[in-house]
Amino acid sequence: MKERHDDSKLPSNPEEVEDLRRVDSSANPLIAFTYIELKIITSNFRPDHVLGGGGFGSVYKGFISEELREGLPSLPVAVKVHDGDNSHQGHREWLK
Fold it and tell me: Where is this region: Disordered (predicted)?
C-alpha cells in the first residue's frame, strides 16, 4: 500500500464530496470519511483485515464505532481502497 502525505485528509475528489454534502442528508445516505477516520475504521489498514481485492484495489473489513462521529451508529463496514494505478476504472465501476 502506498503511503499518503499531508493531503491524506482530503477526499479523492473534493468537488464530488462537496456536491454530496449539499444534497439533503435524508435523500443521500452517503457519508464521506477522512483518511484518518478510515485508518481508525480499518485498524490502520491491517493486512489481516483484507477481505479481497480486484483490478483496482483492496477491500478491508472495518468497524464504525459510535465514538468515531456523533450520530453514527456502530456497524461493520467494508472499505475499498483504490490502488491508484488503473486510471478511472474504480470510479466507473462505482457509478454503475
Answer: 1-21
What 39-44 contacts at long range (C-beta under 8 Å, 24+ apart), as own/partner pairs, is 40/68, 41/68, 41/77, 41/79, 42/79
Q: Which domains does the chain have, with CATH numbers?
A: 6-95 (3.30.200)
Q: What is the pTM of this model?
A: 0.62
Query: CB-based contacts of 29: which residues, under 8 Å, 6+ apart?
Result: none
Is 80 marked within a binding site? yes
